[in-house]
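Backbone-to-sequence.
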């Protein structure tokens, strides 16, 4: 599964599972960039075949409802949906 990387300050492994057409996903990316956080992201809706299946399985592991955005921090904390306060609390 090939993720896009955004450079910034390393505050732990931060991965954003998003949809390319999702306004809340875009707001989450903008917030991460405002905070200057290094992160990886993937637009699940742009994937196909085995890669898409793998991405969906990854999201479901953290968010069984399979909703977006799903932000996973250090493989232990999950923020589902756009939650500016929680993102700022953990990564700010």
């Amino acid at each position: 599964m090939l993720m896009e990387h955004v450079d910034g300050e390393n505050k732990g492994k931060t991965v954003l599972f998003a949809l390319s057409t999702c306004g809340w996903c875009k707001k989450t990316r903008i917030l991460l960039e405002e905070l200057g956080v290094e992160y990886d992201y993937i637009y699940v809706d742009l994937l196909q075949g085995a890669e898409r299946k793998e991405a969906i399985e990854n999201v479901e592991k953290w968010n069984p409802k399979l909703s977006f955005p799903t932000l996973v921090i250090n493989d232990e904390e999950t923020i589902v949906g756009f939650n500016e306060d929680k993102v700022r609390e953990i990564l700010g």
